[in-house]
């Protein structure tokens, strides 16, 4: 039987991403008389869930786990009560395929899921403000770690006066984002929108970026209508106020679904070691050629990373950013991993002893 005539492809939820895999995962819930649906919005203990019969308001009381990583999130596939219940409840969530997670701003070591079951993570970066490449790297580390395919969209490309200048900006970001498509886009002129629309037409995409990055304007352009509220950005720094206050899942007219998110001021890493390695893949490849397998790329002899910097093949800024994100990620993981905390302490003591020994040797030579 062809996919076009399969029961799943003709399912009322197929536009939201329902497929054979979700149908199989939901089978035990179906046996209990529950209905499948996708969470399109979460708000203070309740959520909007789109089902075959339409969108219903459901209470999340029965899925409030101790683990904050398992709370109901936009993009989740849920099992909800059938019609007749008042209130209706989300009884359980289907296991997530992917999840975009950042660390919370609280002092406790907790992760916050921003979007679930995402195929594409679109990082929106405004060209109306100075490029913050370190922030782009941070977003990409989380995107790679989520399991989604990252895409960097340079919004407001119409503010760049000439094609040469735009080309240089794209190249700067491409250097920061190895293996990631970088697309300049203007919602004002429509330039680049077709390419982005072609990417998001398949699967679920989440739109990420700082406030004022042009996410809502881009979302409206992809939706073909003004669904998301947009406010003018400040001329001084290109930043805007948070116009999107909740994460909303919306069906795109050309296919696929889009999750728009509020502007993110803090983008803390959350157990994103693999993602950091992916963002800085050229450094990790160089590190394999270092003389010492535990080379810190500081002053060790035979360091291939430092040699690449000296030769001009690797920007020093990239190494500094890599070190910062690796340290940050280690600290986040160490908060919940006693073994790793002990390893970090031992490493500090070892490096401290090496430093003291080097200073003593230097003093001895000067006497």
Instruction: Briefly note the CATH topology name of the largest domain.
Output: Rossmann fold
Provide the structure class.
alpha/beta
Helical stretch tally:
10
Within CATH, the superfamily of the largest domain carries the name P-loop containing nucleotide triphosphate hydrolases
CATH architecture of the largest domain: 3-Layer(aba) Sandwich
- Strands of the widest sheet, in order across it, are 10-9-8-11-13-12
Radius of gyration: 24 Å
Helix and strand element order: HEEEEEEEEHEHEHEHEEHHHHH
Cα distance, first to last residue?
A: 87 Å
In round numbers, the mean pLDDT is 83
CATH class of the largest domain: Alpha Beta
Explain this structure.
By secondary structure, the protein is of the alpha/beta class. It has three domains: 3-93, Nucleic acid-binding proteins (OB fold (Dihydrolipoamide Acetyltransferase, E2P), Beta Barrel), CATH 2.40.50; 99-260, Rossmann fold, CATH 3.40.50.300; 273-366, Ribonucleotide Reductase Protein R1, domain 1, CATH 1.10.40.50. The chain is built from ten helices and 13 strands. The strands form three sheets. It has a six-stranded mixed beta sheet with strand order 10-9-8-11-13-12, with helices on both faces. The chain has a five-stranded mixed barrel with strand order 1-2-3-5-4. It has a two-stranded antiparallel sheet with strand order 6-7.
């Amino acid at each position: 039987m062809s996919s076009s005539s399969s029961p799943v492809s003709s399912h009322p939820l197929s536009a939201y991403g329902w497929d054979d895999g979700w149908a199989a995962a939901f089978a035990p819930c179906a046996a209990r008389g529950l209905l499948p649906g996708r969470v399109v919005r979460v708000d203070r203990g309740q959520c909007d869930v789109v089902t075959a019969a339409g969108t219903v308001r459901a209470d999340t009381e029965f899925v409030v786990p101790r683990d904050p990583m398992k709370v109901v999130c936009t993009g989740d596939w849920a099992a909800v009560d059938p019609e007749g219940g008042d209130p209706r409840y989300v009884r359980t969530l289907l296991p997530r395929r992917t999840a975009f997670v950042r660390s919370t701003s609280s002092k406790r070591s907790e992760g916050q899921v921003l979007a679930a079951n995402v195929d594409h993570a679109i990082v929106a970066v405004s060209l109306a403000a100075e490029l913050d490449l370190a922030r782009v790297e941070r977003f990409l580390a989380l995107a790679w770690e989520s399991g989604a395919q990252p895409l960097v969209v340079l919004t407001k490309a119409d503010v760049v006066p000439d094609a040469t200048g735009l080309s240089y900006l794209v190249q700067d970001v491409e250097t920061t984002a190895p293996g990631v498509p970088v697309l300049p886009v203007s919602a004002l002129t429509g330039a680049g929108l077709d390419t982005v629309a072609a990417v998001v037409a398949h699967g679920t995409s989440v739109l990420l970026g700082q406030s004022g990055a042009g996410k809502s304007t881009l979302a409206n352009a992809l939706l073909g209508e003004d669904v998301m509220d947009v406010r003018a950005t400040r001329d001084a720094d290109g930043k805007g106020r948070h116009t999107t206050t909740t994460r909303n899942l919306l069906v795109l007219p050309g296919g696929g679904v889009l999750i728009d998110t509020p502007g993110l001021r803090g983008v803390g890493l959350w157990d994103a070691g693999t993602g950091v390695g992916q963002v800085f893949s050229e450094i990790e490849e160089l590190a394999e050629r270092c003389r010492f397998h535990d080379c810190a790329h500081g002053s060790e002899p035979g360091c291939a990373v430092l040699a690449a910097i000296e030769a001009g093949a690797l920007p020093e800024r990239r190494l500094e950013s890599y070190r910062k994100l690796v340290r940050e990620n280690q600290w986040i993981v160490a908060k919940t991993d006693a073994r790793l905390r002990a390893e970090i302490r031992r490493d500090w003591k070892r490096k401290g002893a090496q430093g003291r020994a080097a200073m003593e040797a230097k003093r001895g030579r000067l006497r």
